[in-house]
């Protein structure tokens, strides 16, 4: 059976009874770009407030790995394109930039609304995703933003996300191949909006031209 992340360190399950296989699951927060209050300062504040190292250690039993685009950092040196980039660094797991995060949040056009109303964080309703959502909510709460957790069935979660509902949504996608398009196309392409691709509905036609 597959163990949920929160049971990996259970004392009732000895290491000798576990076999670990590295997966290709990439977990991320999708920001609803159609909401004008989810502006750049707000997004920066959320990103800076979450201590990835703490989530990795406490929730993922230390097994998660930092990525460059959608590729694990340990595989960068063997990648035909990324290995040629001398200054490439992974997304940091360790930096705690809470003061920077608070400063960014104050620049949001909806600062007072976020502090008073809070933000809704959606995720799948199973225990594993709920534990991750609670960890993320705790980190965002350090900004002074109340967080409402909403657990949903997978079908409804993805359906409503494709309908541009919600504010923050915890989602997962799988890196089927090591090609850069496996990251760029679903995250940035304007014509890939919805559950099958660009779930945050990001639109920038200059970026589309560069990708093309």
Helix fraction by DSSP (H/I, runs of at least 4): 25-40%
Radius of gyration: 18 Å
Estimate the global geometry from the Cα principal axes: globular
Q: How far do the termini sit from each other?
A: 42 Å
Poorly predicted regions = none
DSSP, total strands:
6
* Structural class by secondary-structure content: alpha/beta
Written description of the protein model:
- By secondary structure, the chain is an alpha/beta fold.
- The protein is 34% helix and 14% strand.
- The protein contains 8 helices and 6 strands, in the order E-H-H-E-E-H-H-E-H-E-H-E-H-H.
- It has helices at 40-49, 52-58, 98-106, 111-117, 127-141, 154-162, 181-188, 205-211, and strands at residues 25-31, 67-68, 71-72, 119-124, 147-152, 168-174.
- A 4-stranded mixed sheet has the order 1-6-4-5. Strands 2-3 form a two-stranded antiparallel ribbon.
- Strand 2 and strand 3 (71-72) form a beta hairpin.
- Helix 1 runs antiparallel to helix 3.
In short:
This protein has 212 residues and is an alpha/beta fold. Helices cover 34% and strands 14% of the residues.
